[in-house]
Amino acid sequence: MNRNIIDVFFKNLIGITALFSVLALGAILLFVFAQGAMPFFTSTASGIRLVTQRIDEITVNGTAYFDHKTFIDIPENTSFISIRFPSPNGEEALDITIDKTEKDPQRMLIFNSNNEIDIIYPEAYVHTVSWPQTAGIASLQKRIHVITPEPPYSLKEFISGLEWRPSRDKIFGIFPMIAGTLLAAFGAVLLGVPIALLCALFMAEFLKPKPASVVRAGVELLAGIPSVVYGFFGLMVIVPFIRTTFDLPSGNTLLSAVIVLALMILPTVITIAETSLRAVPLSVREASLSLGASKMQTAWKVVLPHANSGVMAGVILGISRAVGETMAVILVAGNSPQLTINPLASVRTLTSTIAMEMGYASGRHSEMLFSIGVTLFAIILILNSFILWYRGRMEMEL
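Below the sequence we write its predicted structure tokens.
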């Protein structure tokens, strides 16, 4: 009786834990996808916003604000903004006419003041108005920052755009980073997977059990090394080697990233592939050898195809790690968002962009980094789906 109660308790406990885990994972994915989709469907704000600097008292369209430190929101349908605030030379008056038919944010606002003003355009969708006569020192001048809402960004321009300038011009094109990610990942796979399969086949079929166990332990130890250690090794060894060998001003190139990623995926692919090869029944090997095949022929033509499912699983994990790697790539790739197929040129990956810019990004820039994360998820999903389809097709042919 007690045993049945304990079994039912743990069954329900495991079920509840699994349910909450699935719900938590779903909530995380929903949050990321919602954040990533927002830039393409919504504006950054419903209307124009004002930010005052060194102005203690200000009146905007008849409403007075005192020591206002946050945004002053202007209603969406407003076409005229009247700003008044006191100064040593009398009341300062600034009138802003909003031309809603103008698509260029730099020409959307028309300013008119009763005194001399300076207007600069520090970044897209932002105008900064300053009054030079209010203080002799530029850092003490009274300023008003007028921020117009950024419209929804084009998904086509986001995916196919060739420029990434988030700070000044608000241009978010990630195609060079998609290309850099795929080139680095596929280069690592082309370099690392054949070596990994040869190592796994040698350990499973040709190496004696005791030496194989020692090598296996070493490979598993390599799999546990943090990625930043691989990146540091690449920065100190591979990058100088590439720079010296090819006589380059900098060794932080796509080739350096490919070599480091190939080293990183080796332990994962070797471990899973070797486990799958050792799981092939002994009867399969004996049947091949009894028909006159050599040990090498048996390993290549019989054992390896028989373990195809496990080997492909190792390759999938290797590709996923190469595509999603961040720290090591930041250290060795150079991080230049340029479109190139030259292995000796600097590139930037999607993960590197997120890691380097998320700490200071805000507004539309921050939302676009979430969109990059969604794009990365989609790329990994497409690649894994294609590999699984290809594996199923190969199993049908066998």
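The two ends are 51 Å apart (CA to CA).
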